[in-house]
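Aim 2, interim progress: modelling of the LWAPGFLV-bound target.
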Amino acid sequence: MSERKMVHKITHVTVRDVRFPTSLEQHGSDAMHTDPDYSTAYVVVHTDSGLQGFGFTFTLGKGTEIVVCAVRALAGLVVGKSLQEIVSDFRGFYRLLSSDGQMRWLGPEKGVIHLATAAVLNAVWDLWARAEAFPSFRLTLPDSGSDPKQIVSCVDFRYITDALTEEEALDILVKAQEGKQQREDQMLKEGYPAYTTSCAWIGYSDEQLKQLCTDALKSGWTKFKVKVGADLEDDTRRCRLIRQMIGPDKTLMIDANQRWDVSEAIGWVSSLAEFKPLWIEEPTCPDDILGHAAISKALAPLGIGVATGEQCQNRVMFKQFLQASALQFVQIDSCRLGSVNENLAVLLMAHKFKVPVCPHAGGVGLCELVQHLILFDYICVSGSLSNRMCEYVDHLHEHFTSPVVIHDAHYMPPKDPGYSCEMLESSVKKHQYPEGDVWKQHKNN
Ligand SMILES: C[C@H](O)[C@@H](O)CC(=O)C(=O)O
Ligand SMILES: [Mg+2]
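Predicted structure of the complex, ligand included:
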């Protein structure tokens, strides 16, 4: 990395509770989260140079204030550190946040404290990318001055060396140097393939689903995800409707958001097999690795894979999912895992186990962040687009200073420096909970 602009001593960290009333129109609804208000604990890392890093984690309304408290508790570990100090031992910094002798009792590396860790680390990655004047995904490319050793030095291999050693990770990255430039050029031209979840939230009517699906087909979408799991009759009707609309050749995925027990999942999904879903997402409890393995085994003869990860707590869980052949699609999440650092570990493990990564996105800002990770995966790790696509949800992008650009159902690589986390200050003020205008208005209704 360049020596310029690397002082940036962190003077203070601010965090705000920002919520969007998406539940009013059932955007984001599924079989388990029937009234989601897409929200963030929104963090700004301030430095003595004036440069700021922006970051957040994603939540669903109530409880965001708890994540805000956890960010405040972590802030003391960050203040006083310079960017130089952090990035010269990013693994050590990750461990400082995730292994504090007192605060790790709240996790470790899971739940609220890990969401808060993600928010803070996302802000630090944003700061680093801004200091280097690169979008985050480019921090890792050759002309940014980085090398595979530096990337590997950001990863905490504790608890995963039985699946992936540092040497193996380095080897993967070194091998992937070949063809990197062509892959980057290809991405700049064509973008990364995406699928849409925007047509079929569980609370949408059939009429709405039809209209949204018609619009999506016109805009070039070829891969669609439908929410299922509350009522088998409804699921059958909705899947039939969407399959009829998209035809036999386009891709359909279904997502139950953890609604079923293991045997129930197998039975329910078998009943929907006639609609040829590529995967069933989150069929059961996200912690039940052996349950997912049993579902995977039972559904394999039907050609249906299991996808999970949006609520997978950490790299250790992903390791076991991979070791147990319990998933066929890895769904990393930019705000659930410990930021880029922990996501790198999962991308590298997925590559070793030959399982495609299809990130979870949507929410508020998740598309903005995860596009960096999946571009990195293609350019620097997997080198493959086979069976790979990134989720897209068409909500709340207008609140970001560098919103995602989708062209013909592809994510076009971000150009602005940073990790695309910054929100418009006017949006933050308006949606801050409970004092923002949007929420004051709700109270009065
Ligand atoms: C509550 C969220 O909207 C959730 O349904 C998102 C999700 O499962 C997905 O995008 O996949
Ligand atoms: Mg999902």
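The mean pLDDT is 96. The first strand starts at residue 10 and ends at 19.
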